[in-house]
Design goal:
Structural class: alpha+beta
Radius of gyration: 20 Å
Largest sheet: 12 strands, antiparallel
Number of strands: 14
Strand content: 25-35%
Shape: globular
Order of helices and strands: HHHEEEHEEEEEHEHHEEEEEH
Distance between the termini: 12 Å
Number of helices: 8
Strand order of the largest sheet: 3-10-11-12-13-14-4-5-6-7-8-9
Amino acid sequence: MAPKTTARRAGAPKAEARRAGAPKAEAPDAEARRAAATGPEDRKAEAATGRPRRRSVRFKLLVALVACATAAGGVLAYRAVVSEAPGERAVTVDEASRLALSRLNLFQASPVTVTLTAAEGGDVAVRVEGVVDYRNRRGVGRYRVTGANGPLDHGLVIWDAGGLGLAPEPAGADGPAWQQAERVPRQGWSPRAYTADPLDAGLQLMVQLGADRPDNPLLLAQSGARRLGSDRLDGRSYDRFSGPRAQGAAPDGGRSPLTYWVDGDGTLRRVTMRMPGLGTPTTVDFAGRDDGAKLPEAPWLTG
């Protein structure tokens, strides 16, 4: 993986334009935006030591869970962190079968239109709209960062299982993100490994969701998958499931922080990820196949 970008604001991606022969420059408002996304303790520590405080333990825990999650029958499994809610129950055989098919159906629908929303703290939120192709585990999209007072940043992002790349949107370019990404030269991308930001954790989770074979429904049921209820999204009914618990978790433990919305045909419509202390969960929405999408090569593989 390429090294991290030199200008990295806590809580939002930094799309740094690295043109051939041009020096790296930090945006004038980067420091102000970083301060808005950090808490009082972070600013106090920075004032005392002369350097920014490291991200909080909860963010490190989040990215560690994404990176180290084990599979129970294939569906991502996590250590339980949420207590059982009233009305939930164990999945039936039919429900486990539909949940087991959901990742294969997502793979076969590739490339799939996706939307990710993540809260970064300090009233900062990031939204990514793009496409993921599970056949090569790669995604490309356009991100928007907003704060309490309005827009903060925007640009292009491309990601795979190993990391992501950021770039400014080409001036005057129209069309979907994958078309704009084709116009960005190699030196225009800022590739880096995943960090502990909720956005990074969401992108890393998203690229793992599709699979080229169905999961084992028996293992899903035995590993603690639960039916939580049902919802209507865009006029269609979906069952809401919690994912399986990680191997070795206590059988009487709480449910997984991952929640899946699956319809009667096993189509995955939404996934959310919640961790203690993070408030609003990271949400991934799937909106069906995009036949015309063509994903570019990852910037760190093209050089």
